[in-house]
Amino acid sequence: MKKVYVFLLCLFSFNVSASIIDIKNFVSVINTDFRESQFQNVIKPYASQLELERVEGGGSVFNLYRFRNDGVMINVANNVVLAVVMYKEGEKGMRQFNGKMPFKVNFTMNRSQIEKVIGPPIECIPATTINNVKVDLNCTYPYTLGVQFRVSYDSLNSLDYQTKPINMMFSSSINKAF
User: How far is CA 49 from the centre of its chain?
Assistant: First the structure.
């Protein structure tokens, strides 16, 4: 992916102190047009913390809305919100997401513990390397709220049940880009 530009997006002129993002609200905008008021209203309380990165790859242009201090990123392509990603501390320069996690899982749990809570995955894509970039083990779990729930684990071994998550993502059920 070719990085096009990075800039701080300042949409609104008010201050927000340290916040904890409400993931349910963020998930509610998946599959919506980011130009709609629904999306704007969801991100508005966190706008002072928002960074926007625009990247090109695979014939598409992606807008990545990063909330580094809250450990959350929203992925938008072709004006549609495709995914909401929650990160562990330090992953991709993010702070750890400390809000209420889906299914009451957290970043201290290993894969075995997570699957005891939410059940076995629908599929797991083994870790690999693409263009010298490590792509972690990704497991997709049963659909919820009309979207997929995926967990990326810090392991190259698809049979490693002691590995811990590096990010957790809600994404469009038709989204194969992430």
Answer: 16
Buried-state track 9-37, b at ≥16 Cβ within 10 A, e below 16: beeeeeeeeeeebebeebbbbbebebeee
Reply yes or no on whether the pLDDT at 36 is more than 70.
yes
Average pLDDT taken over every residue of the chain: 81
Do residues 97 and 21 lie in contact, with contact meaning Cβ atoms separated by under 8 Å? yes
Is residue 4 a contact partner of residue 124, using CB atoms and an 8 Å limit? no
pLDDT digits (tens, 9 = 90+) for 37-51: 999 999 999 888 899
Beta strands in the chain (DSSP E): 2-8, 51-57, 60-67, 72-77, 80-87, 123-125, 128-130, 133-135, 137-144, 147-153, 165-172
Nearest to 85 by CA among 94, 77, 57: 94
105 phi and psi angles, rounded to 5 deg: -90, 165
- The reported pLDDT for the residue numbered 137 is 84
**8 Å CB contact between 101 and 114:** no
Predicted confidence (pLDDT) at residue 140 exceeds the cutoff of 90: no
State whether residue 170 is helix, strand or coil: strand
User: DSSP of 5-45, one letter per residue?
Assistant: EEEE---------S----HHHHHTTTTSBTTSHHHHHHHGG
Residue 88 in tokens? 């562990």
